[in-house]
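Most newcomers find our protein records easier to grasp once they have seen one. To make this concrete, we reproduce a full record directly below:

…
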Amino acid sequence: MTHFTAWRLLAAACFAALPAPTAIAQVIHVLPYVQPGDGRTLTGMDVKVIRWLTDQSPGNFVVEYQAAAGPVRTATPTRIALDFPALEVSKKGAAKPPEPKKVDPDDDPKEKKEPRVPPPPEGEQHYFRYTAYLKDLPFNTDISYRVKLAGRVIREATFRTRATADKSVRCVLVGDLAQGRPYQRAVAYQISRQKPEFLVALGDIVYSTGRVNQYMHYFWGTYNNVSQAGPETGAPLMASIPFYPVLGNHDVSAKLAKVPDAFAAYYFFAPPKGGPGEGPWITPLDADESREAQFRAATKDSYPNLDAYSFDYGPAHFVVLNNNPAMKIEAPEFSRWLRADLKATKARWKLVCFHMPGFNSARQHYTEQQIRPLSPLFEECGVDMTFAGHVHNYQRTVPLKFAPGPRGEKKGKVDGVFTLDTLFDGKMNTVPRGIINIVSGGGGASLYGPGLDKTAETLRRVHGANYADFTAKMVVDQHSFVQLDIAPDRLELRAISVTGDELDRIAITKK
């Protein structure tokens, strides 16, 4: 019996025991969890979203919430039905479409050190998704909430509203999270021990094609539907900290026209708004009019907001981009939005998050450099650091500046001139001259090797001046995540392993 199945049976038994007629037996597929909602700037008041999924038995839910010593307030959730028919089955009995035929290191037999994770079972899926909007929340405040069904509490937890610019905050950034392997649960447990205020999920949130049934099979039983935190069970992180999602290639690789439950991230997450709107820089739906209308009706909070958004949290400004290959992030209108967004913020720190790194010393995904042309814009606007996943290990560059030149002979490759700050060490010299680029892709999927001692020579030989010795630290043999402690005048980064050991540490200061 899987951990997720055990939770469902427990929930069903619990609610079946409620006295009739005040409640109906109900299966809770996804326990209530916190989302950022449309909280973008640090003006006015904060907001949050509480969301959960059940079977399609109507439930009399209510959300109660309060700040310490404040009055109890209530929010009545909205409800929509999510219905996903089963995939068409071929004559051979295999569900259509199959997993992507494109060769990916995730499926490279030479890379695998563990047995292949079996796919989730196919079949119809029917849910009610409930959403409660908590508004007018004071900043810098712990908010307790309770979700009740017919008067009985099904989850109670506490989250903290966003910190104002004068406060310090702690967050975690990690990608490539849920492939169904044990390491993802140990990573989630170690993250919970650090007690971050929020998490940025750096893409490839669930494998392998970002479907609803893959979230149900791999994701929620690690990060949310967990009764007690532990290295073998995960942790109920999403009950109390919001996840800010980044779209990775696996999150949008299934086609909505062919896969009914594709693009699942848009159903589950509620990010801030205020992005550039619709354009060639967002995930194309490529579905017929009826399917597109159904999808848009169910994802009003997230499509296309999930593709590009920004938010302030404490003394930092975060920008989240979808830089998958089909996204036209160099389009003039998109560049105007990005430049205006980065220049408008008054935050001391500017951090940009996307999935595919432009500066990567692994042999996997090396030529996927489509973010490199934005380097001059990032430098112009004072970006301090970038964060990516996609490559399943940990990497940190020296502070660098990059002047793009002509595109290389291979699609995605971008040549240019590097300026490297090799004097920065993050200990004695803590003022970088350039942008530090982080890869944090060790969240649970199969790791990528070999290490820098072997890859650097190969990359120099194969790619020439397209590669430079920009990598200061690379860890390929341990799953890990990145933790940031951000104060107004100091930012400290730690890379932490699946066993809680420190793999890397630097500090950056500002006068």
